[in-house]
C-alpha cells in the first residue's frame, strides 16, 4: 500500500480499541503511530490522572490542541486520541485539516470488560459500572458522531476485521 497523504485519527470512548487498532495499523501498514495521552504524559512528566488533578481538564485539553497542531505537517500517521479529544471543537478542526476521523464504538458492557482492571482512566476510576459508562458515552455520542468521517463498531471483532473495514471505508470516502 502506498503511504496515505493524510493522517488517520482514531476517536471514541475509552476502551473502544483506539490504541490496539493504532498498533495494528502500524504493524500491517507501517504507519507511524502517535499515542496522544502517552506523549502528553511524557512531556509533562506526570500521568494523565495527575495532570487532571493538578492542572484540571482545561489545561489538559490545551495540551491536546497544541499536539494536534504539531501534527499538521505530517501525513501517513495513525493517531490514537484520548477519549475526550473531540469534545473540544478546536481539536476536531485540527484533525479535519489533514486527516480522516474514524470513530470506534463498542457497547458499555464491552468497554467495562476492557477497562475493569485499568487504573489510568480518571473519569472511570470510581465508577466502573455499565450504567455509568453508558451515561458518559451518551453525553459524548453526538459530539463523536458529528466529528467522525466513518464509524466502526469493535464489539466481538478481530483487529484484522476492524482494520480491513477502516481501510475499505477510507478508500471509498
Structure characterization notes:
The structure is a single chain. This protein is an alpha/beta fold and 173 residues long. 53% of the residues lie in helices and 14% in strands. The protein has a five-stranded parallel β-sheet, sandwiched between helices. Helix 3 (48-55) packs across helix 4, helix 4 runs parallel beside helix 5 (89-98) and helix 6 packs across helix 7 (130-147). The model has no long low-confidence stretch (mean pLDDT 91).
SSE topology sketch:
Blueprint: E1 7-11, H1 18-29, E2 32-35, H2 36-44, H3 48-55, H4 57-70, E3 77-80, H5 89-98, E4 99-105, H6 108-115, H7 130-147, E5 150-153, H8 159-171
Parallel strand pairs: 1-3, 1-4, 2-3, 4-5
Helix pairs in contact: 1-8, 3-4, 4-5, 6-7
Sheet of most strands: 5 strands, parallel
Number of helical segments?
8
> Roughly how much helix do the residues carry, as a percent range?
40-55%
Distance between the ends: 17 Å
Content-based structural category = alpha/beta
Pick out the low-confidence regions: none
- Indicate the radius of gyration in whole angstroms: 15 Å
